[in-house]
Design brief:
Elements (H helix, E strand, L loop, with lengths): L1 H23 L4 E6 L4 H16 L3 E6 L6 H12 L6 E5 H9 L7 H7 L1 H4 L2 H7 E2 L2 E2 L1 E3 L3 E2 L2 E5 H7 L7 H13 L3 E3 L5 H26 L3 H4 L2 H13 L12 H10 L2 E5 L3 H8 L8 E5 L7 E4 L1 E5 L7 H11 L2 H11 L15 H15 L3 E3 L9 H15 L6 H15 L1
Parallel strand pairs: 1-2, 1-3, 9-10, 12-14
Antiparallel strand pairs: 3-13, 4-5, 6-13, 7-12, 8-10, 8-11
Helix pairs in contact: 2-14, 2-16, 10-12, 10-18, 12-19, 18-19
The protein binds beta-D-glucopyranose (BGC).
The site of beta-D-glucopyranose has 12 residues, from loops.
Amino acid sequence: MRKLLTTTALIALALAGATAGARAADVKEVQMLHWWTSGGEAAALNVLKQDLAKEGYAWKDVPVAGGGGDAAMTALKAMVAAGNYPTASQMLGYTVLDYAQAGVMGDLTETAKKEGWDKAVPEALQKFSVYNGKWVAVPVNVHSVNWLWINKAVMDKIGGKQPKTFDDLIALLDKAKAAGVTPLALGGQNWQEATMFDSIVMSTGGPEFYKKAMNDLDEDSLKSDTMKKSFDNLAKIVKYVDPNFSGRDWNLATAMVIKGDALVQVMGDWAKGEFVAAKKKPGTDYLCYRFPGTEGSVIYNSDMFGMFNVPADRKSAQVALATATLSKSFQSAFNVVKGSVPARTDVPDTAFDECGKMGMANLKAANADGKLVGSLAQGYGAPPAIANAYKDVVSKFVHGQIKTSDEAVQQLVQAIDDAK
Ligand code: BGC
């Protein structure tokens, strides 16, 4: 009996030791919340999963569908409120700063120093990934929203050419309509409508106006005739959607262009990820042009991986994720698939197709010329409450709940004011 007790005690002790050992050891798993659920997005995310698997990290996926990330951000809020922090979460600009201010983000500064991120990541992105001198997020990419994605065969069929002005674009849409093709592929969800409106505002008022109205929230600009004209232009362009556009997901709108059921989609370059996934080639199957009147400017957003203040045993996985994300090889491989461009300035464009090369060159030039501005629809113009107010007003206008441009401007000013 005595011997048995001793043996049992020894086993118990050994087990306790093993448990303690396991607790102290690093958890080899990355838990990631994101909204990358379309074909192109999933393919891009696979590049990351595979890189981490090679280093021995398991991937715990927390996908929350819904382009633009509104549903994902609701899910994140609930997780954080419950103290259940993911290793990282996909986030846009001002959302990172909100969480950093709430004191729930981790600190990757040591890794940043070791890896030289300060020198490689552009200033515009560091404004959102560094908070009070600490690296709290890592940028994965730079997307831009002022693009047209056009089906080449439809373009040839209607004898269209690159539109240089907003009026040219309307004339092109008319040609598609006359040929019996849906001219504009749009998903009637507020974030898609507002993402398109970002480009319309830039095209109508130019980069200086865009910056004043959409980043500085200057009231005179918001209620100006230029803003009214922007809404007039929005009213003109939405006449070219098909009757089933309400509620459609963005990637289904892209699929309409890929299949030749529609001529053009106005969307961020995540749309290009869908063309890549469908094995379509720029110049042959599709065309990428800047939204007319916005050439030379880039309205950007960047997917950040916000790094939460996870328990000590999950930190090494977080460091591995952050290091892999900002490595040069990953930045090239991932962004080729995603449709975006690298978040580092020192990645060669060799692996990118002609649209990607153009995106990289445009970003560099716009940055040098002071024409790189944040997308209000995509979290880089103003904090989330204001961006949501903007999306709401634009969407009400598109769906006829706000009837005139005058009324739209009034409501926009009011809604932004209330959200401040
Ligand atoms: C993100 C992209 C994503 C798109 C559609 C944007 O907010 O920045 O990475 O592909 O939403 O889901």
